[in-house]
Structure formats: structure tokens, C-alpha cells
Specification:
Number of strands: 12
Number of helices: 10
Order of helices and strands: EEHHHEHEHEEHEEEEHHEEHH
Shape: elongated
CATH topology: Spore Coat Polysaccharide Biosynthesis Protein SpsA, Chain A
Strand content: 15-25%
Helix content: 25-40%
Largest sheet: 8 strands, mixed
CATH architecture: Alpha-Beta Complex
Radius of gyration: 34 Å
CATH superfamily: Spore Coat Polysaccharide Biosynthesis Protein SpsA, Chain A
Oligomer: single chain
Length: about 350
């Protein structure tokens, strides 16, 4: 049997040598390989440029590129509400949206006893930075109306209303009555005068713009010393007998009572509910560990905020406070608490 095939040509039969057959097979293999390779390349997408760099040995550099592409600060809560940082594109969009509508907003603060020393600093800074260009009414609930004399000069479309309250000596007593006082004031006269109301501690100072990006149906502010901390560090009320009690599987964030707000109807519901829970615990001789802040957090677990403000909107100089791009509202009172005795005396805390 012949080992090599015979090829017929017009001139006759030609014997194919061993070397020629090897060359033919080699050329045929190259053609098949080339055609298969092009088909594969056409059907597979090119990998991400970062993976090319990883192949070249640039592991650390390109992992940093990937990390940089991820937002450094979350701009949305787990339930889809905006988490507001003042200088983001989303905040600029929110400012533009509300600025076109034109809104009436109120800023409510309770001033009793020695806290009257903070009134002028609070209002003067709010005139510069709080909702600039909008109609704002300042509501000061106070047991000493004369502490606001002489009146502070306000800008156009700004007004100050003093709401007298009975004298409330002692911080504990004030904390137990605060939500009830807020609910009464919101019901009358605030509900008929503004659309949005924000409750703030008076011992604070606005140091950067706080604009329309803060507006929402129900607005809460993240506690600066607990932002980014694990859930088990949150000082929720744990005593089951308390109406403010929070179970281990509840809670996304811990909110500060320094600033919260929203639509007047939502804020009345919040203040009214919290005041009733506080009265219920008082009747049972139960005191929540965080006083009204505990009830505020309980309420915000059951009624998640539609807008959450970052620690930019409640900050103080503390070793535990989160680093923020901009400090917008600074708590002078809590900042003093973070100082040692000597520093407190030097800053007249």
C-alpha cells in the first residue's frame, strides 16, 4: 500500500513527497488557527482597562483606581432616601428644585435659663447661612422673652416670633417637656404660617450654608460621633420597659436631636407621638438613657426619614466626630462637653 497519496494534474500523475505533505499540513493548520482566532476575538468583549493593567503587574496602582471610582461617602440610605452632603451634584439639584418653588420655612428653638446667652449668636449666624434667599420665620420658645432685647436686625422676608413658655428649671425637666412644648407650638401658631419647620438646639452656630438641600417630608441628622460606627455602639434605649426601647435587629443609623425637621404635619406627628411616649414612661417612673433623643430615634426607626442629613449639619470638635468635607452647623454646647476642665474655662463654656 502506498504511503503517500498521488495527485493527478492535467499533465499526469505526480507523487507527493514526505516533505511536501508536512508543509501542506502545516500551512493548513496555520490557516485554521488564524481563522478560529479571529472568530474568537470577535465574539469576546475586551476586558476593562484595569484588568489589562493588572496583567502588566500594576496591581496596587489599579486597585487604587478602582477604589477611587467608588463614591467615598454614601449619597443614599438603604431604603432609598437621599443622604445629603451639601456640595454634591444631587444637593445642587435639590437646591435648584426647591428654589424655583419658593417655600416658607420656620426654625424653632427652645431657650430657657442660661441658654439665653446663645440666642444672638444662633440667630445672627442663621441670618447668613440658613436657607438664604427664602422666607424664614424664627420661633423662639422661651421663659425669658426679655433676653431677646434689643431685637436682632433681620433681613428681608425674615421675621422673629417669641412664644412664651412657663419656666422650666433643670435640664431633666426640660428634656421631659420639650417634645410636648414643640407639639403645642407647631399646632398653634406654626402650622398656619409655614410649610416646613426645623427644630434646633439653641447652643449652635451656623458656619457654612445650609440650603434647600435639607428640605424633605421628614428630615433627620446623623450623629457625628456615631456616623460610620457599628450598630452595636449606638446608644439606643435597651430597657424593654421603656417606650423608647430598640431591639437588637432594629435601627440603621443613630440620629442627633440637635437638628431635625420636615413638613409641619410630619413634625407635629413626631413631636406629639414622642411626647405621649415620654409621658407614658414618666407615669411608670422610667427614664430613657438619652432622654428625648432616645424617643426621637425610636420614632425614626418606625417612620424612616425621607431625607437624612450628613454630619456636616451637626458637628462639634471631638476626637470621635466624623471627618466631614464642610462643617455647616456646629454644636457649641456639645463641643464644650468634649473639652477638659481647663479648656472649658478658657472658652467660657
Amino acid at each position: 500500500m502506498a504511503l503517500f497519496p498521488l495527485c493527478k494534474t492535467p499533465t499526469g500523475t505526480v507523487r507527493v513527497t514526505r516533505i511536501q505533505l508536512v508543509l501542506y499540513c502545516f500551512l493548513l493548520s496555520l490557516i485554521i488557527y488564524f481563522l478560529h482566532g479571529r472568530k474568537t476575538a470577535a465574539s469576546v468583549k475586551s476586558p476593562h482597562p484595569n484588568f489589562h493593567a493588572l496583567d502588566r503587574g500594576g496591581v496596587m496602582t489599579d486597585m487604587m483606581v478602582v477604589k477611587a471610582a467608588v463614591p467615598q461617602t454614601p449619597v443614599e440610605t438603604p431604603w432609598g432616601a437621599p443622604l445629603v452632603w451639601g456640595d454634591t451634584r444631587n444637593s445642587a439639584w435639590r437646591r435648584a428644585k426647591f428654589a424655583q418653588q419658593g417655600i416658607r420655612a420656620g426654625l424653632l428653638a427652645l431657650v430657657v435659663g442660661s441658654y439665653s446667652q446663645f440666642v444672638r449668636r444662633f440667630l445672627t449666624s442663621a441670618e447668613i447661612y440658613f436657607l438664604p434667599g427664602q422666607m424664614v420665620t424664627y420661633y423662639i420658645l422661651t421663659d425669658s422673652p426679655r433676653s431677646l432685647d434689643p431685637p436682632i436686625e433681620l433681613g428681608p422676608e425674615r421675621q422673629l416670633k417669641v412664644v412664651p413658655v412657663a419656666e422650666l428649671p433643670g435640664w431633666d425637666r426640660l428634656a421631659h417637656r420639650r417634645m410636648a412644648l414643640l407639639a403645642d407650638a407647631i399646632k398653634d401658631p406654626i402650622s398656619s404660617e409655614v410649610e416646613y419647620i426645623f427644630c434646633a438646639d439653641i447652643d449652635q452656630e451656623f458656619v457654612a450654608p445650609v440650603g434647600e438641600e435639607i428640605l424633605g417630608d421628614l428630615v433627620a441628622t446623623l450623629h457625628p460621633e456615631l456616623y460610620g460606627m457599628p450598630r452595636n455602639t449606638f446608644p439606643y434605649e435597651v430597657e424593654e420597659v421603656s417606650s423608647a426601647s430598640v431591639d437588637e435587629d432594629e435601627g440603621d443609623y443613630y440620629y442627633t436631636s440637635e437638628l431635625y425637621g420636615g413638613l409641619v404635619s410630619e413634625m407635629y406627628r413626631l413631636a406629639r407621638t414622642c411626647s405621649l411616649l415620654i409621658l407614658q414612661d414618666q407615669a411608670n417612673r422610667v427614664v430613657a438613657r438619652g432622654l428625648e433623643e432616645s424617643y426621637l430615634n425610636r420614632y425614626l426607626i418606625d417612620h424612616r426619614p425621607t431625607c437624612v442629613l450628613s454630619p456636616e449639619y451637626s458637628w462639634w470638635d471631638s476626637a470621635l466626630a466624623a471627618d466631614v468635607p464642610v462643617q455647616r452647623l456646629v454644636s457649641l454646647g456639645r463641643q464644650c462637653e468634649a473639652y477638659d476642665k481647663q479648656t472649658r474655662e478658657r472658652n467660657k463654656c
